[in-house]
Amino acid sequence: MTNSYNRTKALGFDIGFWRAICTNGLIFRQKHIVFRYYHTHEEMVDEERLVVDASPLRELGTAFIGQMRDLKEFTVPRKHMLALACKVFGIRVRKKDLSKPRRRRQLEHFTEVIDRLTAKYFDDLGENGYAALNVLTDFAARPRSYISQQAMIDPLQKRCGDWTVSFLEAIKESSFNYDSYLGSFAKDARLLRESEGGTE
């Protein structure tokens, strides 16, 4: 729910659902029901008009469960997880970045967190898209390697939602392969691995 005390924001309700079994979050754009009421006498409504038709929510729930099932059935080798995380979160790595102490520490921390989450979820769930999604959403919910954690959570969770939709579309293609899909992000991941070994 959003609102404001000075009429700068409409009274709004974004009604959807989430995975209550875990604390990881993701946000699907345009995948919810929205009500907006502006702060004018004509727009403000009685409570009974906020009754929600549950059928669109049921459809969203069915679609979401189907997406999670499809992710679970598609193999994601753990060796690609760091490059995949770089792609989803837009992490670009240049050799000059690794010569800057602050940026290098940030990138090394990102690598450590993704590796730790990969071990956790891939050991538990196997090498599949659902495990990969859990790695991504866990990081998005707790992006400790960023200065302003609160400011990053919402856009990172949106990236997870965007990735879920786009990845499920990409893997429908018979020509799908990770070399093409990851592209230059595979090189970024290699640079991060080299930095772990102390090379520049």
What does this structure look like?
With 200 residues, this protein is mainly α. It folds into two domains: 11-65, no CATH class; 67-196, no CATH class. Helices cover 54% and strands 5% of the residues. The protein contains seven helices and two strands. It has helices at residues 54-73, 81-89, 101-125, 129-141, 149-170, 178-182, 184-196, and strands spanning 11-15, 33-37. The protein has a two-stranded antiparallel ribbon. The termini are far apart.
Shape annotation: globular
Rg for CA atoms: 20 Å
Low-confidence regions: none
Derived from helix and strand composition plus strand pairing, the structural class reads mainly alpha
What's the number of domains? 2
The H-and-E topology, N to C, reads as EEHHHHHHH
Short characterization:
This protein has helices at residues 54-73, 81-89, 101-125, 129-141, 149-170, 178-182, 184-196, and strands spanning 11-15, 33-37.
